[in-house]
Amino acid sequence: MTVAQALAPLVDLIWPPRCPLCGEGIGTQTGLCTGCWSKLTFPEAEGGVVAAVAYNDPARDLVLAFKRGGRISLAPVLARMMAARLGPLEGVWLTVPVPLHRWRLWQRGYNQSALLARELAGLTGARLVVDALVRRKHTPSLGRLGSAARAHVLEGAIAANPSRSAQLAGANVLLVDDVLTSSATTRACIAALDAAGAARVRVVCFARVGLD
Hints:
- 40% of the residues lie in helices and 17% in strands.
- It is an alpha/beta fold.
- Belongs to the ComF/GntX family.
């Protein structure tokens, strides 16, 4: 029994577990209530991308609470949902998060993708390489840009960390992100991993925009 498991009853007594979306009482600290769970949509893998859920209103609320609301305790919940959709892995894999620029990391205090990658590493047995990719320049939000403009903004922004080149060469890589939107950032990360000699890259995210 782990320390966390041993302390779980005490934690539940002091802080009764509640659904992070609606606040309803639930059985454990790491889950959703039945009602909120039923509102999520669980898509099949598509185009090499594994998404735990489609990006609908409940998924957005979870992501915003985790990403911008400081609810880092949601990382195990989201990662378990991602691992369930990912399934068992064959062979040796690395988990690599989509990187944040150091200024964005300083402002937010954490890289939400790195937190998910750490949890996934524990769940899947893959090895976490949190700094395998680096964001060499700060980029603005891509939300209102077209595909060509997004590619231009990201040109040269993401690269493999030279100190991790030996680990990436020939490796199977799980590229971890919280939300996949336009896929411009994902493509830039994959290009950097390919340039570093990664043998295979699979993308796994919590939510994917554009899925029903």
